[in-house]
Amino acid sequence: MKRNSKIGKEIVSAIKKGGPSPSSNTALAAILEKARELDIPKEILERNIKRASEKDQDTYTEKVYEVYGFGGVGMIVEVLTDKITRSVADIRNVVKDCGAKLADPGSVTFRFRQARVVNIKVTDAGKDQLLSIALDAGADDVLEPNFDDDDDSEEEIERFYKIVTTSDNYPVVLSKLQEEGLKFETDNGYELLPLNPIEVDDEAMELNKELVSKLLELDDVDAVYTDQK
Question: Same domain, yes or no, for 76 and 184?
């Protein structure tokens, strides 16, 4: 998920709809508070607040696109865009070029559930430690990242354990992690988790990886979720 980009676009959208003052614009105030919790750099906030005042800057619209990947894998593509026609065309082109297929609305979303998630780099903690913390905090689960046999140490740094919990219990989990002195990354309000992850062969895995990578290169795309195991 491209959190900095998404927060920036949410700021622009909130200001366009309700003005630049957090005291009178509750939506903007909530986004700025979320940005503080996510430790979004101040310069990003200031840049997007300024951008919202530009006359040629349109407001942003949320869209969700569903994609059939490879090996039976489904994907959810979350978009926040100021030009819907551009985002549709860009996503369609990437999906077509990669040999995948856009799905009809509702064809893939039922495979996922929303959950609050805390992400911890695999280099910062072990699963046993996180399981103990999750149990004490009343969390639902700890999910391991997928490890490929050919992963090198540089790639491993960017892999995360995910502590899954409810919205009500989320602050408790964060507090427990802070007590243990562990570094973590919060979600952006929620993440989509697959209900029944699908195991695929190596070829399909590489094709899906390339598709996700190319989708995330698009400026309008903020997150891509898959049900690949």
Answer: yes
Q: Please give the Cα distance from 165 to 176 (Å, whole number).
A: 13
Q: Which residues of 123-135 are buried (b: 16+ CB within 10 A; e: fewer)?
A: eebeeeebeebbe
Coil, helix or strand at residue 191: strand
133 and 198 assigned to the same domain: yes
For the chain, how many structural domains are there in total?
Answer: 2
Contact 162, 118 (CB under 8 A): yes
Q: Could you tell me which residues are beta bridge partners of residue 67?
A: 75, 102
- Over residues 100-155, the pLDDT tens digits come to 999 999 999 999 999 999 989 888 888 899 999 988 889 999 998 875 544 444 44
Helix (H) or strand (E) holding 226: strand 221-226
